[in-house]
Write a structure and sequence with these properties.
Length: 269
């Protein structure tokens, strides 16, 4: 057989087996694009525009936590724990305010400081001094001149509400920031609890101030103011962990005595 016959194709012949040809297939390599994770649902962007937020952006969880803290300040449910007290606890703290030299009030409220006594005492004192102040004025005028025409002065209630609420709210706030500035540990809720309960003795003394005897009225208000001032000052001294607080203690004493004198001069003249 010559060489030309050997080059003939044989794949069409019967019984012939085609040669297996190994072909190398090129497999395409796909590159995965870089992932860009985003938070869903999209947050509102600046100026009310909506958009997706990446996890590394500064307006993520930190912003949500900051917003939740500010919302908690104006949420009523955040203050529910400060009203979780029963009658026995409130009465015990009110009675403690009548013992000015104890100096252990903060240890009694440390586990559960409340705002119930703060609001109840302030509100009760507002109505008591407004009502009894009018009664005292009536008795004084009737004693001097029985024919004097007297009318109930509603303005007493406005002055009482503004002065008592303003004092019991702003004074503890001022002392709180002052002690924070001085580097002392302070709790605003505990300060409100302290100053609120310190007003309880004025409720009791107001009943005696309707007696139309000027010397007796001054004696009662001085004793009540001194007891309340000592209660605040001595408890502050035992609570604040600092040595340079003498001025703070004196200021708290003077302010409390000033409130007592204001009650006497304005409501029981």
């Amino acid at each position: 057989m010559d060489e030309s016959e050997n080059n003939l194709p044989t794949s069409h012949l019967l019984g012939s087996v085609p040669a297996v040809v190994k072909e190398e297939k090129s497999i395409p390599i796909y590159e995965v694009p870089e992932a860009n994770l985003q938070i869903f649902p999209p947050n509102n962007g600046a100026n009310g525009a909506q958009g997706y937020q990446t996890p590394g952006s500064p307006s993520g969880d930190e912003q949500l936590q900051s917003e939740s803290k500010w919302k908690g300040v104006f949420s009523i449910s955040s203050y529910a724990q400060y009203f979780n007290v029963d009658t026995d606890v409130v009465l015990n703290r009110l009675i403690s305010s009548l013992h000015p030299i104890g100096g252990d009030f903060f240890s009694k409220i440390d586990a559960n400081p409340d705002l119930y006594g703060f609001i109840w005492t302030s509100t009760t004192l507002v109505f008591v001094i407004a009502a009894l102040g009018n009664c005292a004025t009536y008795l004084t005028k009737k004693q001097s001149n029985s024919s004097t025409i007297w009318s109930f002065d509603v303005g007493y209630l406005n002055v009482a509400a503004g002065s008592i609420y303003g004092y019991t709210f702003l004074v503890p706030v001022a002392f709180y920031f002052l002690l924070q500035y001085l580097g002392s540990n302070a709790s605003l809720v505990r300060f409100w609890c302290l100053w609120g309960n310190s007003l309880f003795i004025f409720i009791l003394s107001s009943v005696l101030l309707i007696i139309p005897v000027e010397f007796l009225r001054w004696l009662i208000i001085v004793l009540a103011g001194g007891a309340s001032a000592c209660f605040v000052a001595l408890n502050l001294r035992s609570y604040i962990q600092s040595t340079d607080i003498n001025l703070v203690i004196v200021a708290s004493f003077v302010l409390q005595m000033g409130l007592a004198l204001f009650i006497k001069i304005w409501f029981f003249p």
